[in-house]
Write a structure and sequence with these properties.
The complex is a heterodimer of chains A (about 475) and B (about 850). Chain A folds into two domains: about 350 residues, 3-Layer(aba) Sandwich (Alkaline Phosphatase, subunit A); about 55 residues. Chain A contains 13 helices and 16 strands. In chain A, a hairpin with a 4-residue loop joins β2 and β3. In chain A, α8 packs antiparallel against α9 and α11 runs parallel beside α12. In chain A, about 60% of the residues are buried. Chain B is mainly alpha-helical and about 850 residues long. Among the domains of chain B are: about 130 residues, Cytochrome Bc1 Complex, Chain D, domain 2 (Orthogonal Bundle), CATH 1.10.760; about 120 residues, no CATH class; about 100 residues, no CATH class. Chain B contains 33 helices and six strands. Chain B has a two-stranded antiparallel sheet with strand order 1-2. In chain B, strands 3-4 form a two-stranded antiparallel ribbon. In chain B, strands 5-6 form a two-stranded antiparallel ribbon. In chain B, β1 and β2 form a beta hairpin. Classes of the chains: A alpha/beta (about 475), B mainly alpha (about 850). At the A-B interface, α6, α8 and α9 of A face α27, α28, α31, α32 and α33 of B.
């Protein structure tokens, strides 16, 4: 399977990497004889509108009432007690046991685009691509604390140890990236405050094979853990060692008939390739000044904008699932001061990502999702300094774009105070089902046997595809 | 009928010709079933089909039952006419799986669970043969098949099946392979070349048994066995949720190691964990075992509701008992009666109620826990306490005198009011003292009985500071003694353990698992009704009752579950493949007689773990070669029948241990606080509350075995994670065994492997004074306990030359490479030479063979 010719090619290429030596990819089947697999799903249930996903996670829970869900009535009632009819018997987080007062939105809303989509003054750039996005104002979730809420958003359950969506999707579809991971995670943080932690479990492959786990691309240090050669070892030297390892493993394979040896050889080639392909990927120095300006980033700044640009580069290279986290949206207090900062950090880059994907012909088959892990209360929280809003699971807003999602469209609504989603109520499982649908997957059919059960991303309670937001 | 069901005709006509072959070689998932032609057995053949395809809607869960039909109970299925025994054509079940009408066809398309032709055929023949049911195999008490005296039961029962299906077992592996296999399986470390030579040259018939005895007596045996158990019980150093802060729990890890090394009876091992605080002979040791009940995930997140987390903790514990002892997936019953197994919501919450007595916060910081001391530490602490007490007495004595003197002093001042020359006039007095003196001077103008507490303190403070300092010395002595005592106390091991509170939490059945719904019935602790039908005693059951039942002869599950996991440790796959589910959705064991025999023997032996380990590894079955003939690979590709051994990659911790052991870097110390070896910078950057930096240890802590590495649930050490170590947020009976590029990156680039390689290279150069081929052979021997083949020698020699020339050209790079890691550099070896050899040893660490248990 690794004939003399390719071996020689491997030995000779040294510092250039391995070129196009055929490999069972990172996401491929268990042994080399298999085709570079596209995953366990052989026949797609639906036309594949989305070839890849870029999920922009605003970690901490951005306030929909300042950004997407305009509630004049709430503003009228600012400072008045929250009517008990809304909140009685409902789950609260930090407001538990406190007197509840209405808090009107603190920023202006305006209408954007031909579609006249109503959004915050804080998001003019996203507003400028309003005609390309679909706003969902009727999202809900089950969880109300950060950690379980992220888990629920990523894995469809609040029990740890389950695969996140990126793992499910690469498991189902494989990846088209030959020498990069199929599921990549990027993290950025607004400066200054103390953001909520994000655990590696959020991109875990859970009970799925480990090759489907998300790989974090770091902005400082090795972009992928253990990617760099040890000090004092050049790429040529590393190449010599890797080829000796593989030669020796091949020798061993002639004595021991174990398919794992062939896989091991392939993984060493893959690792060696990643050592050059990943640095090439993360080096945005070659992007034009125009592009850098459009996103609003500098090479090496580790910003959300840089990560958006990297997301585009990953999309171009065939990575299936790209998840960005921008942290520090947890505005229990100082909402008025902090929220505009976060909004500014992401606004321009989000719009740039859409424009860039469009101009490169990638927008139509890339599914973009912008969401937090939960929403925020229409009630004020004032016990932690200047007023903010508490965690909320009865209503939140997200937006989606690309890949067969309606453009310039608003879906669903909340009650007059923005407390609960009332029209076209959408659950996290519905969101997952819809995303899978755009990827061509029937969410009921994507399952994996674990502890005797056919476990699905969308759980057992049933989920519906949000047909009305699809073209 | 035939018109109505055209499929039927086709099915029957086509069936006969291939029936014999189909039955002789009929596979269930992976296992090769030996079946008498035509004989359908419910547990083996039918239940898996019904469970996976039908029970979800027509099974035990009454609330989600469709058409009021249940197929898991024979009488009900017959009453509903779904089954007419011996009359497949009359049976609605058969009609509905055969029909072409998509509206009527079962299972419905929406379930995505179509039946294969073979499954349809099985169901038809089953009905034809009378549709007999059997109780689920795992819920029946195991039956011990008679095995002839003097025969290893494992071999007898494995070969009984091999005979039935016509497979010939494989020959015995060579001695080097055997001792490598035994060493990795029993102590998790490689043998030395000397160990191998001794074994190879030992002509006595007990040679093999001697190796086993030596390994079972090694303190590393406990470490090896503990690694698997710690996964099963989700042991970790941190709380798991959100801030994922540390908790004191490592004494439990050492308790597990000790328990295996002492060969503690498994029933006792169980009872100490579930109820170590409630045992009549409870002591520090058993209480540390009871830390098991505290290993679950907890949170300190702001806004977390106690009721919410109370429920999460209850369900976490029930899942843990299900996973670790019962081999049952109980999690479904949190929200509804189990769809496949007879576990009801009542069973679930009643099991949870056993733990309602455990003292703990639902939300918030874990307590420091119980002091865990050796006798020596205890006496040292007592000694320090005695010194503190002694000095306190001395202090009190002097204090009385000083107080008396102060009274006289005051009396004198009151009668002869003067300024306070002791301080006010002293130019060297501090500002504070001057201020105090002024305050006291003012106070003296009022009668002493009008002073409030603060004012009295001021006067006393002044007196003791400026007038009479005879308390200073005893005060200092006391403070010092207290500080010393506290320093010692703080450094003593502590462990969060189970403490039973008389006031128990109320446990309710939570409708749909919703913790905010308090309408559900209150339940008391109770054993699962489907396993323990008899009503229990009048008193309320405790965790001790639960523990005793888990390891009672009446419980059909525990011994099977434990033996099935043990089988996996020694053969790579369980006898029933799904280690954590012996229920309907799991896999009926490939060799049920064997699993049952092992379970019975385990109990009969007094739950003697080492007896069972010895029994398995002494078998010829265990000692077979792991290479498959073409025929064998074709007929049993996944080696479910054990007609050979299976090679598998070492577990994450052992990959590291192996390299450290080979290099000589390994510090073989047993137990103690978790250690922090090198970890990439900023790996913890997304942790918060508080933000933390991983500060690597120094000295011997850098070279301890993998199981001692700090287990941070939300950010497990990436080198362990790459090799499939679980985060231990949930109980894990079976680790993934992946083969991914990150593993190559770790072995190639993680500094510990570079350091180990350079130390190993120095070892080779210092210990072997021969020429290059001899040194390469020496390195091969230490790593793989064999000589390299001529081809291997050529490859290694060529690589060495290539790297030598690279470092000749760039000698500074050699220095750079050798700076990796904290271990001292030998001063007698040229750096270029050592660096080049480091590549050879590094390559050895990366070989598939090196990280594979043969």
């Amino acid at each position: 399977m690794f004939n003399t010719q390719t071996r020689r090619a491997f030995l000779n290429r040294g510092s250039q990497g391995l070129g196009t030596v055929a490999l069972a990819s990172l996401l491929g089947g268990k042994n080399l004889s298999a085709q570079p697999s596209r995953g366990v799903i052989q026949n797609l249930a639906y036309p594949q509108k989305a070839k890849r996903v870029i999920w922009l996670t605003m970690a901490g829970g951005p306030s929909q009432l300042e950004l997407f869900d305009h509630k004049p009535k709430l503003a009228e009632m600012d400072g008045q007690p929250m009517p008990e009819s809304f909140t009685k018997g409902q789950q609260l987080a930090q407001l538990q046991g406190q007197k509840l007062f209405c808090k009107g939105g603190v920023f202006q809303f305006q209408k954007y685009g031909n579609c006249q989509l109503e959004m915050s003054e804080l998001l003019p750039e996203i507003g400028s691509v309003a005609d390309d996005i679909c706003l969902v104002r009727s999202m809900t979730t089950d969880a109300i604390n950060h950690d379980p809420a992220h888990m629920f958003m990523n894995t469809g359950t609040q029990i740890a140890g389950r695969p996140s969506m990126g793992a499910w999707v690469t498991y189902g579809l494989g990846s088209e990236a030959e020498n990069l991971p199929g599921f990549v995670v990027l993290m950025s943080t607004g400066p200054g405050r103390s953001p909520q932690p994000i655990a590696t479990r959020q991109w875990s492959s859970g009970f799925l094979p480990s090759r489907f786990q998300g790989v974090q691309l770091r902005s400082k240090g090795d972009p992928v853990l253990y990617l760099s050669n040890p000090q004092g070892i050049s790429r040529d030297q590393q190449g010599a060692d890797v080829s000796a390892i593989n030669e020796l493993n091949r020798e061993h394979a002639t004595l021991i008939d174990d398919p794992e040896i062939a896989t091991r050889i392939a993984q060493y080639e893959m690792a060696f390739q990643m050592q050059s392909s990943v640095p090439e990927l993360v080096d945005i120095g070659g992007e034009t000044a125009h592009t850098l300006k459009m996103y609003g980033c500098q090479p090496g700044d580790g910003s959300f904008a840089s990560n958006c640009l990297l997301a585009r580069r990953l999309a171009e290279r065939g990575t299936r699932f790209i998840q960005l986290y921008h942290r520090d949206w947890d505005h229990h207090s100082v909402l008025k001061e902090e929220l505009p900062l976060r909004a500014k950090e992401v606004d321009r880059a989000c719009a740039a990502l859409i424009r860039d994907l469009k101009q490169r012909g990638l927008f139509d088959d890339t599914l973009i999702v912008w969401s937090g892990e939960f929403g925020r209360t229409p009630m004020a929280q004032s016990n932690k300094g200047p007023s903010g809003r508490d965690h909320h699971n009865k209503s939140m807003s997200i937006w989606m774009a690309g890949a067969g999602i309606k453009r310039g469209f608003a879906y669903g609504s909340t009650d007059e105070l923005g407390y609960a989603a009332v029209e076209e109520v959408a659950t996290v499982h519905d969101l997952h089902a819809t995303m899978l649908h755009q990827l061509g997957i029937d969410h009921n059919a994507l399952s994996h046997k674990f502890q005797g059960l056919d476990v699905r991303l969308t759980g057992v309670e049933g989920a519906k595809v949000l047909d009305k937001i699809l073209t | 009928m035939q018109n109505k069901l055209p499929l039927l005709d086709w099915q029957f006509s086509g069936r006969i010709s291939c029936l014999a072959i189909l039955l002789l070689l009929s596979f269930c998932e992976e296992g090769l079933w030996a079946a008498a032609p035509g004989e359908v057995r419910f547990n083996r053949d039918v239940r898996p089909i019904l469970s996976d395809h039908c029970f979800s809607c027509h099974g035990p869960d009454a609330n989600h039952r469709e058409a009021d039909l249940r197929l898991d109970v024979r009488d009900a299925a017959i009453a509903a006419k779904a089954i007419v025994p011996n009359q497949p054509i009359e049976s609605e079940l058969i009609a509905r799986i055969l029909t072409n009408d998509p509206e009527k066809r079962m299972p419905p398309e929406s379930a995505h669970k179509p039946l294969t032709a073979q499954q349809v055929d099985t169901l038809q023949r089953w009905v034809e043969q009378g549709a007999e049911y059997e109780p689920h195999w795992a819920y029946q008490l195991p039956v011990k098949t008679a095995v002839p005296a003097g025969v290893n039961a494992v071999d007898f029962l494995v070969r009984k099946r091999l005979n039935q299906i016509g497979i010939i077992p494989s020959p015995q592996a060579d001695r080097r392979t055997l001792i490598r296999r035994l060493s990795f399986d029993l102590i998790g470390l490689p043998p030395t070349p000397q160990d191998v030579a001794d074994f190879v040259n030992d002509q006595s018939p007990e040679a093999y048994a001697k190796v086993i005895n030596r390994l079972l007596q090694s303190p590393h045996y406990g470490e090896r066995m503990a690694t698997s158990w710690l996964d099963v019980v989700r042991y970790a150093d941190t709380i798991g949720y959100h801030s994922d802060v540390p908790r004191n729990v490592w004494p439990y890890r050492d308790w597990v190691i000790r328990s295996f090394n002492e060969n503690k009876r498994f029933d006792r091992f169980t009872m100490e964990q579930v109820a170590g605080d409630l045992l009549p002979d409870a002591n520090q040791e058993t209480r540390v075992g009871s830390a098991f009940n505290r290993l679950l995930l907890t949170t300190e997140e702001g806004g977390a509701q106690p009721k919410d987390y109370e429920q999460r903790m209850l369900t976490d514990r029930v899942r843990a008992i299900g996973a670790a002892w019962l081999g049952q997936t109980t999690g479904c019953s949190q929200c509804h009666d189990h769809k496949f197994d007879p576990i009801t919501m009542r069973d679930f919450y009643s099991l949870g109620a056993f733990f309602a007595d455990i003292k703990e916060l639902s939300v918030g910081k874990r307590e420091n826990g119980m002091l865990v001391t050796s006798a020596e530490q205890e006496s040292q602490l007592a000694q320090l306490d005695a010194i503190v007490a002694e000095r306190r007495t001395a202090y009190s004595f002097v204090e009385q005198q000083v107080n008396a003197a102060q009274q006289q002093w005051l009396a004198g001042l009151m009668t002869n009011p003067v300024s306070l020359p002791e301080a006010a006039a002293d130019s060297k007095a501090s500002d504070d003292l001057k201020k105090l003196a002024q305050q006291v001077t003012d106070l003296l103008k009022q009668p002493a009985d009008q002073w409030d507490t603060k004012q009295k303190e001021a006067v006393q403070g002044y007196y003791r500071k400026a007038v009479n300092t005879s308390l200073d010395a005893p005060q200092q002595a006391l403070t010092q003694a207290e500080a010393e005592r506290n320093r010692y106390y703080d450094a003593l091991p502590k462990c969060i353990v189970s403490v039973s509170e008389p006031e128990k939490r109320t446990v309710r059945i939570l409708p749909r698992g919703n913790w905010m719904d308090e309408t559900g019935e209150i339940v008391k602790p109770a054993l699962p009704a489907f396993l323990v039908p008899a009503p229990q005693t009048g008193r309320e059951l405790t965790r001790l009752d639960l523990a005793q039942w888990l390891v009672s002869r009446e419980n059909p599950l525990t011994a099977r579950t434990v033996m099935n996991r043990m089988w996996k440790q020694f053969f790579g796959t369980g006898l029933s493949r799904v280690l954590d589910d012996l229920g309907a959705q799991g896999e009926p064991p490939v060799n049920p007689e064997l699993l049952d025999w092992l379970a019975c023997e385990f109990v009969d032996s007094g739950w003697d773990v080492q007896h069972m380990v010895r029994l398995v590894v002494m078998s010829d079955t265990y000692q077979q070669v792991s290479t498959a003939t073409k025929e064998l690979a074709a007929v049993d590709p996944n080696n479910r029948e054990c007609a050979r051994q299976t090679p598998f990659r070492l577990d994450a911790e052992l990959v590291r241990d192996n390299a450290l052991a080979i290099s000589g870097l390994l510090v073989p110390k047993i137990g103690g606080p978790s250690v922090k070896p090198y970890q990439p910078d900023r790996y913890w950057e997304n942790l918060n509350f508080p933000t933390r930096d991983w500060v690597p240890d120094s000295g011997e802590s850098l070279y301890r075995r993998g199981l001692y590495i700090w287990w941070q649930r939300s950010f497990l050490h990436p080198s362990l994670l790459a090799f499939d170590a679980p985060s231990r947020e949930e109980c894990v009976a079976e680790r993934n065994r992946s083969n991914i590029p990150q593993q190559a990156l770790v072995l190639l680039n993680d500094p510990i492997y570079i350091e180990a390689a350079r130390v190993f290279a120095a070892r080779v150069l210092n210990e072997c004074h021969g020429d290059t081929p001899q040194r390469i052979k020496y390195a091969w021997q230490l790593t793989l306990q064999r000589d390299p083949t001529p081809q291997e020698l050529t490859i290694a020699t060529r690589l060495l030359a290539q790297q030598q020339s690279a470092y000749e050209q760039a000698p500074a790079s050699a220095d750079e490479l050798l700076k990796t890691g904290a271990a001292p550099l030998p001063d007698n070896i040229d750096h270029r030479e050592l660096a080049a050899w480091t590549h050879v040893t590094r390559v050895l660490f990366n070989l598939h063979e090196t990280i594979t248990r043969p």
